[in-house]
Specification:
Layout lengths: L7 H4 L1 H26 L2 E10 L2 E9 L4 H8 L4 E11 L7 E4 L2 E9 L4 E6 L2 E5 L2 H8 L1 E9 L8 E10 L6 H4 L15 E6 L15
Antiparallel strand pairs: 1-2, 2-8, 3-4, 3-5, 3-9, 5-6, 6-7, 9-10
């Protein structure tokens, strides 16, 4: 008498394949979301002297994932923080913290005007497309970060800059964690550089000729 056995996994093969396919799809989705987030980056930043002190100029490429884009079109305001840290290295002690200024920015879609509104510092502008709004958000000109005399001319300093979504400003159900995961996050890697403090720019009054 011959007895034949059918492996149990053979009967479950379609279910196993479906489960594997589902897990693979989730992995691709998560990977795609991570790649989208990784695209946001600070491309350039520099500090220069002006008569009032020192200002920062910077450029950043900003990309939003589909969840954040959809939130904008539904009228949710997205707040961003531009964070700068300036330190002075010291050989025999901890680095000296010079300043940690933060610039608050906001972008939202005006449902009546059907235009994107970008608020950065004391400036408010409107544009027609999301691409234009993100480009405007990523461009920083003449942001005063230090008062006159805050840096020692010729001294070596280090700085780093990043831009991130301020999740604490999201509507309450989102900010307290009702929605989790990377879909409600956007942060650039830190962009670091070093510089020697430039000489203070002459003030307008000092440049006037004497009578």
């Amino acid at each position: 008498m011959m007895v034949f056995f059918t492996p149990c996994c053979a009967k479950r093969d379609p279910a196993v394949r479906w489960l594997v396919g589902l897990l693979f799809g989730c992995w691709l989705a998560l990977g795609g979301s991570a790649l989208a987030a990784d695209k946001s980056v600070v491309r350039h930043a520099a500090i220069r002297a002006v008569p009032q002190g020192y200002v920062l100029d910077a450029d950043a490429d900003i990309f939003l994932n589909p969840t954040l884009e959809d939130a904008l079109t539904k009228g949710i305001n997205l707040y961003f923080l531009l964070e700068l840290e300036i330190t002075r290295p010291r050989n025999w002690w901890l680095d000296e913290d010079i300043a940690e200024p933060v610039r608050k920015m906001r972008i939202y879609y005006h449902l009546l005007l059907r235009r994107y509104v970008v608020e950065s510092g004391y400036t408010t502008r409107t544009v027609a497309t999301l691409g234009e709004a993100l480009a405007m958000l990523g461009r920083v000109d003449d942001w005063q970060v230090l008062e006159r005399g805050a840096l020692r001319t010729g001294e070596h300093y280090e700085a780093r800059l990043r831009l991130r979504l301020d999740t604490s400003k999201l509507p309450r159900p989102l900010s307290i964690g009702a929605v989790t995961g990377d879909k409600w996050e956007m942060v650039t890697p830190w962009y670091g550089w070093s510089f020697d403090a430039p000489a203070a720019a002459p003030s307008a009054s000092s440049s006037q000729p004497l009578p």
